[in-house]
Amino acid sequence: MKRNIGSRLALYPTPAVVVGAMVQDRVNWIMVAHVGIIGHDRVLVSMHKAHYTNQGVKAAGRLSINLVSEDMLVRADAAGCHSGATWDKSQLFAWTMGEAGTPVITMSPLTMECVVTDNYETETFDNFICSIAATLADEAFLDAQGRPDFARIRPVLFEMPGYSYLRCGERLGLCTRLGKDVPGKGVPDTAGTADTANRAGEGGRQ
Ligand SMILES: Cc1cc2nc3c(=O)[nH]c(=O)nc-3n(C[C@H](O)[C@H](O)[C@H](O)COP(=O)(O)O)c2cc1C
């Protein structure tokens, strides 16, 4: 039986990303995990107003979102432990300036160069709404059609209650194939047991 545990942020895991921005002519990196997708052409980056990076994002109106791979996790974590206000993070990652004017981490499998189009401010957070000017991905992480292959990228995930990083899992099946043949009417939901729909899903594993 479910227990009501109150009003909790429970929408995890989310991808852990390193956001990059120029702050007063020096590159700065910050770990951010409160990110989201808005429609099909905007992303959200939620950053506490007290963070040093915010002033650079506001001044330039742009930022980069660098997905975190497992081999860059320790350095990415360092970007979340120290503030650029007191600790120079500019040497944490090798980087290049992207065509949209944002710092691109060489080691990151995929970087989105973003332009800030809006800021949905709450009392303590800047919630940057961004369009995507360019997406830079290592060839090794693209499929035959040139699309990012997240089964290969395996971005590191974050969860808040345990304040820990999680490894990306395995592909369970293809969307809109798993449920396609489940009959609509008269199929009881046998909650709590492995129902027929779930068993049908096993056949869809790719
Ligand atoms: C795993 C992890 C996730 C984090 N996610 C966020 C986040 O979503 N938003 C935020 O404002 N700070 C987040 N932080 C905290 C900042 O990364 C941290 O305070 C950082 O030192 C701020 O850097 P700055 O002052 O140089 O901007 C996170 C930290 C860690 C370790």
Automatic annotation (TrEMBL):
Keywords from the UniProt entry: Flavoprotein
Region: Disordered, residue numbers: 185-206
Q: Does the keyword Transmembrane apply?
A: no
The record, for PANTHER family, names: FLAVOREDOXIN, FLAVOREDOXIN-RELATED-RELATED
Please indicate if the UniProt record lists Flavoprotein as a keyword. yes
Q: Which domain of life is it from?
A: Bacteria
Needed cofactors: FMN
What's an example of a GO molecular-function annotation for this chain? FMN binding
> Signal peptide location in the record?
none
What family classification does the UniProt entry report for this protein? Belongs to the flavoredoxin family.
Q: In this protein, which residues make up the domain named Flavin reductase like?
A: 9-151
Entry-linked InterPro entries? Flavin_Rdtase-like_dom, Flavoredoxin, Split_barrel_FMN-bd
What name goes with this protein? Flavin reductase
**Gene3D superfamilies with a match to the protein in the record:** Electron Transport, Fmn-binding Protein, Chain A
